[in-house]
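PROTEIN DESIGN WORKSHEET
SECTION A - STRUCTURE
LENGTH: 120
C-ALPHA CELLS:
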C-alpha cells in the first residue's frame, strides 16, 4: 500500500533552518509529482511547494519563495524540503503529498505530517 512518512520537523528559532524528508513506498515514486503542504491550527491546508516527477520543474507559493527549496531523489524514493530563514508564521504541521496532476494542488495520498515550530 502507498505510504508517505515525513520526518525532520522540530523546533527552530526565527532565521533558522530545518530539512524535512518524506520517504515514499508502495508505488513507483518516479512516476508522480510530489508536493509539500502545511496546515496551521485553525487554518486550511496550504500548498507550499511542488516538484515534477523527474525533478525537472518546481513551484513555490509566494510565502516561501526564496526561502524554501524542494528536491527529490528518485533512487531513494524521497522528497525533501529545505527550509531556510524560518519565520514564526511557518509554524504548522507539514505534509508530503502524492499529487494526481502537476501543479494542480490535488493529491490522492498524504503522510501523517511532521510538526515544525518556529519560536524564540
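SECTION B - SEQUENCE
RESIDUE ASSIGNMENT:
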Amino acid at each position: 500500500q502507498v505510504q508517505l512518512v515525513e520526518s525532520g520537523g522540530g523546533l527552530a528559532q526565527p532565521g533558522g533552518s530545518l530539512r524535512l524528508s518524506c520517504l515514499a513506498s508502495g508505488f513507483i515514486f518516479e512516476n508522480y509529482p510530489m508536493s509539500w503542504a502545511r496546515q496551521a491550527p485553525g487554518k486550511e491546508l496550504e500548498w507550499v511547494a511542488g516538484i515534477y516527477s523527474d525533478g525537472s520543474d518546481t513551484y513555490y507559493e509566494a510565502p516561501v519563495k526564496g526561502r524554501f527549496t524542494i528536491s527529490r531523489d528518485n533512487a531513494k524514493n524521497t522528497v525533501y524540503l529545505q527550509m531556510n530563514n524560518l519565520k514564526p508564521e511557518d509554524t504548522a504541521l507539514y505534509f508530503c503529498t502524492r499529487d494526481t496532476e502537476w501543479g494542480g494542488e490535488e493529491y490522492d495520498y498524504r503522510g501523517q505530517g511532521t510538526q515544525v515550530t518556529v519560536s524564540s
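SECTION C - NOTES
The two ends are 40 Å apart (CA to CA).
The mean pLDDT is 96.
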